[in-house]
Structures are given as C-alpha cells and as structure tokens.
Amino acid sequence: MSTTTTAVLVPLLPFLGALAGLLTGRRAPGFVRPLAVLPTLAAAVLAAVVAWRQGGGDALDAATRLTPTGSVPIDLALHLDGFAVLVALLVGVVATCVQLYSTAYLRDDPRYPSYAALVSLFTAAMLLVVYSGDLMVLLVGWEIMGICSYFLVGHYWETEAARTASLKAFLVTKLGDVPFLIGILALAADAGTFRINGILTAVTSGGIDHPTLIALLLLAGVAGKSAQFPLHTWLPDAMAGPTPVSALIHAATMVAAGVYFVARLLPLFAASTAALVVLAVMAAVTMVGSGLAALAQDDIKRVLAYSTVGQLGYMTGALAVGDRSAAVFHLVSHGAFKALLFLGAGVIIHAAGTNSLAAMARTGGLAKRIPDAYWTMTVALLALAAIPPFSGFFSKEAVLGAAEHAASGDAEGIPGAAGWLVLTAGLLTALLTAAYATRLWLMAFRGTGPGAADHGKQPAAMNTVLWILFVPTLALGLAAWKLPDWFDGGSLTPTLTTSVLSTGCALAGASVMYAAWRRTAALAARTPLGAVAADPDAAPYVSEEESIATHEAAYGDIAAAPDPADPGRTLLGPLHRHAAAGFHLDAVYSALFVRPTRAAARLARFLDREVVETYVRSAGTAPRLLGEAVRRAQTGNVQTYLSALFAGAVVLAVAAVLVANGA
Question: Are 103 and 36 contacting, i.e. CB atoms less than 8 angstroms apart?
Fold first, then answer.
C-alpha cells in the first residue's frame, strides 16, 4: 500500500467508525465500543506508518480535482511534511486514549453511542485539517470540529452549565470563523488557488496584494479556534463537558488547529510586520492573563483549561517570532502531557467526588488511593512547569530560544519588539505556570483532614491510558535531537541563557507557592468551606459519570466567596477576585454585545407587535367596519331606500345652489 493511500485511510477510518456507530448504536449496543476504539486505533497505527515512511524528508503531495468552480478550483489534496505526519500521529494516539478511557468513564451513560461516534467524527475532522493540502477542504474539517464541539461540550445537556457552555463555544468560535472565511476567499482570489503550495509560491513571488489584511482576517479565526485573547473565554467554560472531551479538545483537536494553520501558512503572516506584532501582542496577553487566572480557579479542570490557553500562547508566540518548528514541537509535547493531565484529573474527580481543589485540600489520603494518577500527574505537572528533563522543558525552551533570537535582531524579517514581547511574557508565564502547577499538586494530593468517601476503584482502562501517555510526557523531550528532521531541520536545542532564566523562574514560582501553602495548610484543616460551600459527601453517590457531571466546585462563585485557606489567594491578594472571574472579560462582552443584541431584539419585538401588527389589524378592521355599516344600511325596506335617495338628491341640489352662488 502506497504512502498516499495509507494517508487517505487515516481520516477515513474514524469517519467510517463514526458513521457505523451512529447507525448501529441502538440496534447493536455490543458493537459500540469496538466501533469507537478499533477504527481510531487503526488510524493511529496508520498515522505512525505514514510518519515512519515520510521520515522527515521531502514533503509528499497528491491531489485530484474535486470540482470545477470557475477560476479557482477546489482539489482533494494531501500534503505530508514533517509537521503534518507528527501532528497526525499525536491526534491518533490521543484520540485512541480518549476512546479507550471513555469506555470506562461513560460505561453507564445511555448516550455513550452518540458520544463515541461524535468523538470519532471529531478525530476524523482534525486529521482532515492536518493532512489537507487545500484550504477549502481544510475548512470542511475546521467547521465539522466546531459542530462536534457543540454537541460534545453539551453532552450533559440536563445541566444549565453544559447547555450554556456548548452554545458559548459555538458562537464564539463562529464569530472568528466569519472573518476567517473571508480571509480564505481573499487569499485564494489573490493567489488564484486554494492549494497551500500554490499560495506559498504566490507569497514568495510577491503575488499576494493584501497580505496584512488577509493575515489579520485569518488571525480572527485562529484566535477563536485556538482560544487566544480576546476570543478565549469559551474554553474554560467548556469544562462542563465530560473530562475525556476536555482532554481531546485541549490536547489534540480544535485548539491545536489554529496553531497548526498558522504554522502551515507562516510565510504569509511573516510577509506582514503588522500581523506579526498583532500575533505577538495576542500571545503575550494570553500567556500572562491565563497564568494569573489559573492561580485563582477552584475547579481543577478550569485550572487546566486556563493552562491550555497559556500554553497555546507560547505556540502563537513562537509563530510571532517566525519559528514554526518550536511552535509545532511545543504543540506535540503539550498534547501529550495535557491529555495526561485531563485524564488524570478525571481519576482524581472520581476518587474525591468533587472538582473542587478547596474540598480536596481538606481531605487526606488521595495520593495513596490513586497511585497511578498521582505518579503520572506529578510527572505531567513537572513537564507543564518546564522542569528538566521532561518534555515541556525542551519544547518551551525552543520557544523562548526563538524569542531570544528574534529579540537580538538575528531573525531576518522579524521585528525585535515582537521578540522582546514574547520573551518577557514567556519568562513571566514560566513563573506563573510553575506556581499554579504546584498549587494544583499540593491541594489535590497533599490535603489535610479526613479521607474522602471511597467511590470505588478506578477502572483499569482509565489507569492504563495514563501510563500510555506517561511515556511521551517523559521521553519526548529527550528525543529532541532527532525531531529537527521533521521540523525543517531547525535546531531545537535549548539555549543556555533562556534555560537558566526560565528554569529559575519556574523554581521561584514553585518555591513561593510552596511557602504560601505551608502557611495556609493548617488553616485549611480547621476552616470549614463556609455557608456557600458544598460538602462532596453530603449527596449519596450514584454513578461515576453522573457524579462527575453534577459535582461543582466547592465555591459556586469563588470570586464572591474566596477560600481563605487557598495559597493562590494569598499570593494574588486583591487581584485574586478579578483573576478568578477571568478579569471580567465575559462581563465586558455582555455589556458590549449581549445586552445591545437583546435590547435590539426587544425593540424588534415591540415594533413587530405594537406597530406592524397594529397596522395589519387596522388594515383588516377598517374594511370590516365599513362592511358592517353597509350591512346595516341594507334593510330591504323600499320606502327607506326612496327616502335616502330623495334626501341625497336634496343635499346635492342645495350644494349645487351654494356652489353656484359662491361662484
């Protein structure tokens, strides 16, 4: 089987699995789990075969004319370079782990067949984006992912939080997709083709007439899909969905698509200095803001969600300084340890019976009860904090090294201001990342007090997946010396200056957080959660997925009722309240967009009911009244008719005389 044929099967198999799962889910429930796991597993194996055959060498291209569309045709094209094959392998491995994990996590969920089919369709759409060599075909996968995310985030549709989060994710990402589509059409109009290779050739030859405008339009879609400021607010709320969905979205699909898209078309963005500066500002604000917000969250999944936003900021920062090798390296590395963190969080939530770090900090013995999650998550958090020798250290150092290179003026065509901005924000975010990673680890695994209620042993499938993802989390960074073959041959070796600075920042952040926790640990042991807190043991335990779906953070609104024993609150001080609320960006959007839209809707309803309907009712009432008057005049009495005619004649005669005299 040729490499091209093998590559075609990679996105096709999960799609066929999704189709078969939807058609047979209710009729043959015994086939649901095999149809969920096996096609995705086969796609992952084939993606590994494609990556092995490609070997980091020259890109493999294949295309067939899909449909004639006039001057700009659409091709069903494949483009297999080192970036594509590695990202596809990441998607396949993470999706397989998520499907395997879900067989245990949602084993009692009656909607599991549709859930598994949507996960397979989600995976197929992302693989289509990764392998596609044509922008319109890429756009198909891009939009399918948005639809799948709506249904998967809203899986627990019985809860208001899930319904609101799914709608918000759909609307915010679609808000960015509108200019994104306009940008693709404008780009194809300038280049004369939707083929990515043709577009890059046009960029190189100066055939793009409006690079800045097109790049900014495309960045709007990237900001929405990859949850970058200011369109990042949907991602933390998307935690209302099942934990495996969170792992899939945050590690391998959806949010990775925007970064990958910019990496594929980086020469286009590099042709506009303004676009690079905008990208650098967006990355810097995203990194620092999300790091502060993560320090103030009580829900363990929201901490990881803001962490994802920040790590995506590192990737867009690497792109802003013109280094797509560092960006995609961090994308792959982050995908491995972030999937492990989310799936490990699912095990923690199941064992503790709550999402709340405040509640976990008041229970003991959690680390002993879930040793698999404890050890694997410890390594994953070290990778997140970029502590050597774990994978996150090497990939994050590649980003910071690229920023240092641009800041020193050695990167041709890259503004030095963008380099300094990304470098400064990256070092500050390294400190914040280590701080919130340490806070999560201490509050989840080093809680004081009585142990939480035992909700049963975690299924073997869930623990097995953690150890599968543990391997790339531990070893991927050590293979950095080989990865440049897949990444344009660029160097991914950490530089001494940024390595020392970022590791020092990380150790400082972890040390400060540990000191703060030591001061608050005793307070947590003797301070109840408070009047607004929910005791996770108060409600009877029902089923695993229902418990995970309905348990909320101990403080429903931690901004209004902060935990005095939270070390994050101690460090942030007055800033904690604002950071916990995401710096009130949702309130700003509500004031700028939601309220005016609702006011316009109320005005339209008023005009429709009170003006338009009044006119319509009047238009019908006037003929009815006239008809009623005419009907009353038709009495059938001849004398009445003659009297009326005589009276009318008299009136007309008198009027004629008066008119004649007046004339």
Answer: yes
What integer pLDDT is reported at residue 663 of this predicted model?
56
Amino acid identity of residue 526, one-letter, is R
- Output the CA angle 551-553-554, nearest 5 degrees: 105
- Burial class of residue 202 (count of CB atoms within 10 Å of its CB; 0-12, 13-18, 19+): buried
pLDDT band at 532 (very low <50, low <70, confident <90, very high): very low
- Residue 632's pLDDT band (cuts 50, 70, 90): confident
Rounded Cα distance between 570 and 397, Å, is 30
Kindly state the tokens that stand for 309: 């936003």
- Residue 241: what pLDDT? 85
Amino acid letter for position 661: N
User: Is 555 in contact with 529 (CB distance < 8 Å)?
Assistant: yes
Q: What is the mean pLDDT of the chain?
A: 85
* Contact between residue 164 and residue 102 where contact means Cβ atoms under 8 Å apart: no
Alpha carbons 442 and 161: distance in angstroms, whole number? 28
78 alpha carbon, distance to own chain's centre: 25
- Backbone torsions φ then ψ of 621, nearest 5 degrees: -75, -40
Report whether 87 contacts 130 (CB < 8 A).
Answer: yes
| Pair 302, 214: CB distance under 8 Å | no
Q: In Å, how far are 121, 180, 447, 448, 529 from 523, measured between CA atoms? A: 48, 50, 11, 10, 11
Q: Please, where are the H alpha helices in 77-111?
A: 82-105
Burial 110-126 (b: 16+ CB within 10 A, else e): eebbbbbbbbbbbbbbb
Alpha helices for 296-415 (secondary structure H): 300-320, 324-352, 357-360, 366-369, 371-384, 391-407
Cβ atoms 541, 583 nearer than 8 A: no
What is the SS3 assignment for 573?
coil
- Gap between the Cα atoms of 538 and 524, Å rounded: 19
Distances (CA, A) of 204 to 87, 320, 417, 643: 25, 18, 24, 97
Q: What is the pLDDT of residues 93-116, one digit of tens each?
A: 999 999 999 998 888 888 899 999
Tens digit of each residue's pLDDT (9 = 90 or more) over 164-218: 999 999 999 998 999 999 999 999 999 988 999 999 999 998 888 889 999 999 9
**Residue 65: which H helix or E strand, with range?**
strand 60-67
Q: What is the pLDDT of residues 62-86, one digit of tens each?
A: 888 876 666 788 888 898 888 899 9
- Chain centroid to Cα 6, Å, comes to 29
Cis peptide before 11 (omega within 30 of 0): no
Q: Is the pLDDT of residue 490 over 70?
A: no
CA 144, 202, 226: angle at the middle one, nearest 5? 30
Contacts of 254 (CB under 8 A, 6+ apart): 122, 126, 145, 149, 225, 248
pLDDT of residue 209: 87
Q: Which residues pair with 64 in a beta bridge?
A: 76
241 closest CA partner among 331, 337, 335, 164 = 164
Sequence-ordered list of residues with C-beta below 8 angstroms from that of 300, at least 6 positions apart, any chain: 345, 348, 349, 355, 356, 357, 360, 440, 444
Q: Please tell me which residue, 562 or 648, carries the higher pLDDT value.
A: 648
Q: How far is CA 392 from CA 206, 300, 310, in A?
A: 37, 20, 13
Classified as helix, coil or strand, 364 is strand
- Specify which residues 67 forms β-bridges with: 74
CA 455 from chain center: how many Å?
31
Give the Cα separation of 118 and 98 in Å (integer). 12
Give ∠ CA 129-312-516 in degrees, rounded to 5.
150
